[in-house]
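User: Here's a chain of 233 residues. Predict its fold as C-alpha cells.
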Amino acid sequence: MPEATPAASTETVPPPATRDWFPRTPSPVSTATVDLIATQILPTAELSAPAAGKVLIEKPFDTQNWYVLAPLGGRMSLDGGTLSMAAESQKVDIEANSKIVLPSQFYMEVRVDLSTCTEGDIYGLSFWRGSNVGTFVLDFNCRGQMRFRNLQEGGGRLLRDWSGVRKLAPLAPAVNRIGIWAIADRVDIFVNEQFQYEIQSKASSGGGLSLYLNSAGKGSSSLSFSELGIFEP
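Assistant: Prediction complete.
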C-alpha cells in the first residue's frame, strides 16, 4: 500500500530580513622625501578650537557639492545632510569627493558617527587635495588612534604616526567631532574640541576635500559624516 502524500503546508514563510546598511548610533604610507612640509612637530599646547566665524560655504553637505559613487561591495548615500558609508565583509575603499575648494585659511568641523568598525578599518578625511603643498590626510582606526600624512605626486610623508587621541570615543558605536584649523603657516588638529597637535606647513593655494572609509573586509563596517561646517579661521 503506497504511503499517503502529506498535505501542502499553509504556513507563510517570511521574506529574508533586509540588512540595515546604515544603522543609527546613540546620541601603510610612502616615505619619499618632500620639502614642502616642516619635519618638526610643534610641542602640544593647550589651545582652544576657534569660535566659528563667518560661514565660507553655505550648505556644504548639499548633494550638488559632492560626487557620491559607491564602488562594488560598498554602499554610500548622501541624504538630509548626512553622508553614510558601509561595507559588509568586503575589502573596499569608499570615498566621496567634494566639488568644494577649500581656501588657504579655514576652520572646518565634521561629526563622525561610527556605527560598526573592525580591525584594520580606516576612515577619515583629506583636504587641500592637489594643492601646491600636496594633499593632507587625517586617518583614524578602530583602536582610537589617529595619524596625519601628506601626499605628493612623487610620494608622501608621514607627518605623525598612529597615536592615541585625547577625548576620542574609540570603540563603535561612538560619536566624535573632528576639527581642522588652517591658518598662516600651520595646521592645528582638534578632536571633540580638544587640541591634539600642530604641524607647520608652507602656505597652501587651497584645494579639494574628501571623506572616506577603507574597509578591511573582516566584518561589518559602517559610519556617517554630518554637521559639516566650513568657516573663516
